[in-house]
Amino acid sequence: MLRRDFVRAVMAVAAVPRLLFAQKGAQLPLPAPTPWTQGLNPKTPVPRTVAAEIVADGELKFFSTQQMATLSRLSDVLVPAIGNKPGAVAAETPAFFDFLIGTSPEARKKLYAGGLMWIDAESVKKYKMPFAKLNDEQADALLKPWLRTWMNDHPPTEPHADFINIAHDEIRTATVNSKAWSLVAEARTPSGLYWYPIEPDLRSVSAASAHVQPHVQAVPKISHPMPTYPR
Amino acid sequence: MTNEMYDVLIIGSGHAGGMAAKILTEQGIQCLMLNAGPVADVARDAQPKPAYDLPYRGFKQPGKLEHVFQSNGFNEHVWVDEQEVPYTFNPQNPYNWVRVRLFGGRSLFWSRQSFRLSDYEFKGKSHDGFGDDWPISHADLSPYYSRVEGIFQVAGAMDGPVQMPDGNFVKDDDPWSQAMLRFGAAGKPYDMQICKQRRAMGRDGLASSVNLLLPDAEKTGKLTSVANAVVREITRDKATGQPNGCHFVDRLSGREMHVKARVIVLAAGTLESTRLLLNSGNMADSSGLVGRYLMDQIYGPGVVCSVPEARGGKAAKGLVGGGAIVPRFRNIKTKADGFLRGYAMNVTSSMGGLDARNFKAYGKDLQAKMDEYYGSGFHMTMMGEVLGRYENHVRINKDKVDAWGIQTLHIETKYSDNEINMSKDCAETGAAIAEAAGFEVLAKNPVPNPPGYSIHEVGTCRMGDDPKKSVLNKWNQSHDHKNLFVVDGAAFTSAGWQNPTMTILSLSMRASEYLAGEMKKGNV
Fold first, then answer.
1. Which of B52, B109, B289, B490 has the most C-beta neighbours closer than 10 Å?
2. Is the pLDDT of residue B301 over 70?
3. Overall average pLDDT of the B377-400 stretch
4. What's phi and psi for B307, nearest 5 deg?
5. How far is the CA of A140 from the CAs of A133, A137, B279, B356, B361, in angstroms?
6. Any chain B CB within 8 A of the CB of A196?
7. What is the pLDDT of residue A44?
8. Percent residues over pLDDT 70 in chain B
9. CB contact under 8 A, A222 and B414
10. Which residue of B has its CA nearest to A205?
11. How many Å apart are CA B87 and CA B450, to the nearest integer?
């Protein structure tokens, strides 16, 4: 510490008690600015904000350029604009998926990245061009054989049908839940009661324990597969 | 404060703990309630929002709650974080442990279906030879069920067969829709019966410990509650070896605390109560059965169909709408092929839109299908009994601790052929009945969700008369320690197909009245 600063610090400490006494004794008005808690009360207007996605574009990080082109075309085929309702592309679902899938467990990343590469390869095999360049009829011929009906939490487990049906469901959800969808009068984005993190998030505290490998014993594979689509 | 000795320490604040607090404090007993999480204040912690305003457009944060299928972007912060309080299982046999640590626990979010167990459950072994009978019968619990049904304002009709005993109901005399009557008639050859749903109406649409039980306890002035108190272990008196209080950690600051009490009532939820006993030097475990016989109910299988005459929203008045419960019908009058016990079905005739996944279509074709089928949905979902087996168990995983350094659970459980065959039977029988009723089957699923999904985990501290074959006696009291009670679902000897809530509440009420009596007599 420089000597000058030291002297200043000592003087500041010495000055504090006198200032406190002065306030208490003479009932002087509090020094400006007013303590912020007095100004923040239930009547204080709260600034209005919007979700970042509404004003800005997310940085693309996960899918390759080719995968992104395939995903965009697939999104457009599976969830096209109908009437005045926006399709998946207008709702910027492919860019959102680069973030959602890119931050997901490995199994989900593999399902999407692998699925996009597979459908593109199928396209090249059948039409000698990438999926992104197919017209609607050509895309239908590749996709429709894989459509299945299914119930909650039990998407198909058969290879390729899993990707097509899960992607369809999730692209549709992301589109219906988008801001673009909400702007159309007869379409209504789902809304609900959002719970904030109720107390400080303790994830950093628990990070150490989370990195310990699970202690498991090897047992034979079960014959009845349970749904395992980690989200 | 350190010398304070409470009469009763209640760990957990859900239905089980809330009922214990109400009964005990109303008898003048000083209670301390510890809850591992905070108080949920909707005015402060929640706000209506559209999905696009959430961080993941309504999807949950990826990877955070992989085993809570019930979570989404709106509610993801109400569940226990799987990284904060981890648990392990073999990847081949996944377990969905769905936990809430807010004050009131899972009583804030339950579906409110309110059924009694019958003697087909309490005396299952006497009926078919499998497992063990409970040390009590429906007659023993019936007066408590009636009082609980009164507090929870259970709506229903007096239409139950012997396997679904009637109770003290707010009368439901709405007429059946024609679709439901057609379904009921088509089910007759299977000895199936449609009954009115039984649902707790509670107050203001909430039937929870926090609005129906804890306020009564607080009114007495005898209840003290602490939030964010994560119990590490139950302590023992050095001289007598009897439980005498607990160590807990303040969830936010990490400060270690201890507190003393004459009696301990465990109500932390089936697996947390059991984890606590195991982490307290295998307390109450002279039988070696603490953690054994983990059960729940089979959810997931079902059928979605469409009532053709109702399509396009053109149903005539009285054709569709309403719900029904089909109580267990297998292995009552006849013997089913391939499985013991049975399942119930929740049946709903919906008047809104059908989910897109019921159609093999996308784009404009899908929209056309959804418009065509609008208002015609008819859904069946399964609630099946899981058999109690010794090998389905939980144990402490010494190699993995939670955010407070407390050892975690390893869960080792899987469904057997009994559960798998029962699930197939549900999907096939449901579809056959739907077709006989003239409905079109759109989708069906014969595969159960992973164990735990129903959030109806029970067992692991089973009750019984023989201290060598059970952990608790018929009063939910430890065979080993007179001053230790477990009043949550851990006490179940068998699971049944019924939502366990009414039984947990009634057992907790009965155990707490017994405890109060014993304390007054000086026996505890």
1. B490
2. yes
3. 98
4. -90, 105
5. 13, 5, 58, 18, 10
6. yes
7. 81
8. 99
9. yes
10. B403
11. 15
Question: What are B225's two structure tokens?
Answer: 């509650």
* Residue of higher predicted confidence among B3 and B449: B449
Contact (CB<8Å) B77/A226: no
State the greatest distance between any 2 C-alpha atoms of chain A, in Å, as a whole number. 91
User: What number of other Cβ atoms are within 10 A of residue A1's Cβ?
Assistant: 8
Task: Report which residue type is found at B248.
Answer: F
Q: Among residues of chain B, what percentage have pLDDT more than 90?
A: 96
Cβ pair B400:A203 closer than 8 A: no
- Please say whether the beta carbons of B230 and B249 come within 8 A: yes
CB contact at 8 A, B460 and B204: no
- Position B322, amino acid: G
User: Is the pTM value of this prediction over 0.80?
Assistant: yes
Q: How much of chain B is in helix, strand and coil states, percent to nearest 5? A: 30, 20, 50
At A220, the pLDDT band (50, 70, 90 cuts) reads very low
Query: In this structure, are residues A155 and A168 in contact, taking their beta carbons and an 8 Å threshold?
Result: no
Name which of B263, B272, B241, B245 is nearest B461 in CA terms: B272
Q: How large is the greatest C-alpha to C-alpha distance in chain B, in angstroms?
A: 77
Instruction: Order across the sheet with B170-171: list the strands.
Output: B170-171, B154-156, B199-200
Return the pLDDT at B289: 98
Tens digits of per-residue pLDDT, B224-238?
999 999 999 999 999
pLDDT of B30 reads 98
**Mode of pairing for the β-strands spanning B256-266 and B5-11:** parallel
3-class SS shares of chain A: helix, strand, coil, % to 5: 50, 5, 45
Average pLDDT, chain B: 96
- Those residues with Cβ within 8 angstroms of residue B240's Cβ, 6 or more apart along the chain or in another chain: none
Question: Looking at the complex, does the CB of residue A210 fall below 8 Å from at least one CB of chain B?
Answer: yes
Q: Which helix (H) or strand (E) holds A20?
A: helix A3-26
Whether residue B452 lies within 8 A of chain A, CB to CB, comes out as: no
**Hey, which residues does B153 pair with through a beta bridge?**
none
Phi and psi (nearest 5°) for A77?
-75, -45
DSSP at B1? -
ipTM over the 0.90 cut-off: yes
pLDDT of the residue at A205: 46
Partner A contacted by B81 (CB < 8 A): yes
Give start and end residues of each alpha helix (H) in B32-74: 42-45
**pLDDT for residue A230:** 74
Q: Which residues contact B155 (CB under 8 A, 6 or more apart)?
A: B169, B170, B171, B172, B197, B198, B199, B200, B201
| Least Cα separation, residue B172 to chain A (angstroms) | 29
- Note the pLDDT tens digit of each residue in A39-81: 777 788 888 888 788 888 889 999 999 999 999 999 999 999 9
